[in-house]
Amino acid sequence: MSGYKFMRDVANARLSIVHPDGTEIWRLTAASGHAMFGGVLTVTGALVVSAGVVTLPNESLDADSLATTAYTGANYATVANVNPIGGGLIVYRIKTAAGAAATINVTVTDKSRVIDAWAIPAGAAGGAGDGITVGNAANLITTTAIDGNVADTVPTRATILANAFWEIAAGGTLRIITIDGGGANLPAYDVYVLACKVT
Questions:
Q1: Do 127 and 49 reside in the same domain of the chain?
Q2: What angle do CA 109, 111, 113 make, to 5 degrees?
Q3: Which of 21, 84, 106, 135 could in theory staple to 175 by disulfide, Cβ–Cβ 3.0 to 4.6 A?
Q4: Do 141 and 187 meet the contact criterion of CB atoms below 8 Å apart?
Q5: Cα–Cα distance between 122 and 153 in angstroms, integer?
C-alpha cells in the first residue's frame, strides 16, 4: 500500500513497518544475542494491512539493500505546529568553488523552512569582506552574511534568519551566494543548510 515504509533500528535489532501517519503498525525484533541485519530476511506476498494483519511484499531485505535505500528528505513527513512527536530535519549540502564570487541555485523538492545555516572554509582561509548568504530565490534568509573571513576548517553560523522568507515553496530556489571581499581569491566553502518540511 502506498506510503507504508520499512524502518530499521540496528541498535535494537528491530525492523518495523510504519503507517503513512507515522504510526508503527508492525515490529519484528531479533532474539537476544542475534543480529537482525547480519543475514537476509525474505518476505513474500503483496503488502496488505487489514484487521491487524500485515502481509509483506515480495522483497528481500538484507544489510546491503537497506543501506542502498537509506532515508532521504523524501521519507520525512512535514512538521506541523505543536507536533507532539516532532519530526525529521533535512540538510542541504552545497560546495562552493574557490576564486570569484558565485551563485548556486538548488531547486528544493518539498516546501521547507530553513532553521539554520553554516559554512566552513575548505582548503584555505577566507579574507576580509568574504561571506556567504542563503536566500529564498532573490530574497535573503540570512540578511546578515555568514562570515567567511575565518581560518581554514573553522565553521561560522548564520546570525539572523528572516522569517518572512525562510519558507521555500516546493519547487522553489534555495540560493547560496558567495561574497568576495576583493581579489577574486575566495576559498571553497562547505555550506550546510538545515531545514524541516512544512505545509
A1: no
A2: 125
A3: 135
A4: no
A5: 6
Q: In this predicted model, which residue has the larger pLDDT, 120 or 87?
A: 120
> Does 178 lie in the same domain as 96?
yes
CB 161 within 8 A of CB 103: no
SS3 state at 193 = strand
> Using an 8 Å Cβ cutoff, are 191 and 178 in contact?
no
Question: Which residues of 36-102 form beta strands (DSSP E)?
Answer: 40-43, 48-50, 53-55, 59-62, 90-95
What is the helix, strand, coil percentage profile of the chain, to 5?
5, 45, 55
Considering the entire predicted model, what is its pTM? Answer: 0.68
* Range(s) of the domain holding residue 180: 90-197
Please list, in sequence order, all residues whose beta carbon lies within 8 angstroms of the beta carbon of residue 17, skipping any fewer than 6 positions away. Answer: 4, 5, 6, 7, 24, 25, 26, 27, 54, 56
Residue bearing cell 525484533:
29
One domain for residues 136 and 187? yes
Q: Does the structure show a pLDDT above 70 at 60?
A: no
